[in-house]
Design a protein that fits this description.
By secondary structure, the protein is an all-alpha fold. Helices cover about 70% and strands about 0% of the residues. It is globular and about 40 Å long. About 20% of the residues are buried.
């Protein structure tokens, strides 16, 4: 089911006003991807990009065309590991954060 405009606007407003929320979105996206839920991870990444840097800026920083980025993070997209890593790296740099991996049972 597609997200409503109001929901996406709420995400955008919170992401712009609350750094903790923005970072939690990014963390959730990466955790989903690492735990095998690529579809959800891509959807959250797409929401994060729309709410923060935008696809045009991401294009400049990754050197991947914006339309390709949108397709990759869309429901039928299949980003390569190289492209996905490039996207996440740029977003982490934008936030000024990095992740540390911990294994749990």
């Amino acid at each position: 089911m597609p997200l409503t405009h109001d929901f996406k606007e709420t995400i955008r407003q919170r992401a712009q006003q609350e750094p903790e929320f923005r970072q939690a979105l990014l963390r959730e996206a990466v955790e989903c991807i690492l735990n095998g839920d690529l579809q959800t991870g891509k959807a959250v990444l797409r929401d994060y990009v729309n709410a923060t840097v935008g696809f045009q800026d991401l294009e400049k920083r990754t050197h991947i065309p914006a339309k390709s980025l949108m397709r990759m993070l869309g429901p039928k997209g299949s980003p390569s590991a190289v492209n996905l890593t490039s996207i996440v790296t740029v977003l982490l740099q934008t936030e000024g954060i990095r992740f540390e991996l911990a294994l749990r049972r």
